[in-house]
Amino acid sequence: MLSGTDVVLTMSYALFAFGLIVPPDVLLASGLTLENLFHRWLGSEEISFVTYHLRRTIMVRLVAGFLPLGYFLFMMFFASTSLATYLLGGIGLSLSLALVIFTHVCTVWYARGTWEGHPTVRNLCEIVKRVQETPPTEGDPPELELLRSLSSWQSVASHIDAECRRLEKFTAYSGRGLISSWPGRRFLVTNSWILFSHASTFKPIFQFMGRLCAMVVDSQTLLDTQTTTMSGHPAGENLGTQTMATVRIVDSENGLCQLSVVIPVGDLEELRTYLQFPLIVAQGVVLEPTIVQQFLTAFLRLVAENPTVRPPADMVRILC
């Protein structure tokens, strides 16, 4: 039977684990994140984007795999004697040890010098294989011809890193366009690639493979804490709210959804400029304009309704 102290300790550890994996805004502002703690091992995201997120996904899996064992050790030292004996003699401790061993074995398999066991690397190898099997045609874009000349996933990763270092790309991350507080979440669109990173997942999509289509399937207005003052009153052009659009990347050949991401409605036009395929709005989806856009529309309509004023020819004009 759990005592009151055991319940408090369990809830405290659950809050610690949740804050470690999905840190709140307070921890993000202070820099207490896994990415900052392991920044020396992760390397530079700006220089080696692919390697950084390969290591970051491994880091998240290792930490998450150690959390159940950490709970048993935590309760063994701080909980009551009866509970500690029950935990040590139960099946939970054995499963937590097996989970730690499994995650470490996967890490050794992933990072055995080639990373070929990592799901992202296997995805890149599949992309290279499909591009190599596609017969060239006259209308192939230069990006497809360039990828066809690359024979390994390492060279493809270098190509992705080079495009990520350019300024001409669409970028959304936690605090800028993405509503999740997960610090490692990224959504990048370059001239050739769509890159999405979240938690222990890193998914690359080559824009010129298959028949892709981006579709806005839903929109919702959310409370935007970044546009409110310290007292909670609305501030900024959105007056405390932000309209978000759910965008899905779909392969029209097989109907599979490759990716689903939620971004602000105001970023859709910028996203459209970097996509190499159509961005359409599904029937029935209404994208509400922001307060500033509504004001500009009403202001321009009133200006157009007013008659044109022409000053007298002999009037002295003062230059601004």
From TrEMBL:
Membrane topology: Multi-pass membrane protein
Membrane-spanning ranges: 12-38, 58-80, 86-111
Gene that specifies this protein: TM129
Keyword Transmembrane among UniProt keywords: yes
Any one GO CC term of the record: membrane
High-level lineage: Eukaryota, Metazoa, Spiralia, Lophotrochozoa, Platyhelminthes
UniProt organism field: Schistocephalus solidus
UniProt similarity note: Belongs to the TMEM129 family.
GO terms of biological process kind: protein ubiquitination
InterPro entries named among the record's database cross-references: TM129 (IPR018801)
The name this protein goes by in its record: E3 ubiquitin-protein ligase TM129
Keyword terms: Membrane, Transmembrane, Transmembrane helix
Record localization: Membrane
Cell inner membrane listed as a keyword: no
GO terms of molecular function: ubiquitin protein ligase activity
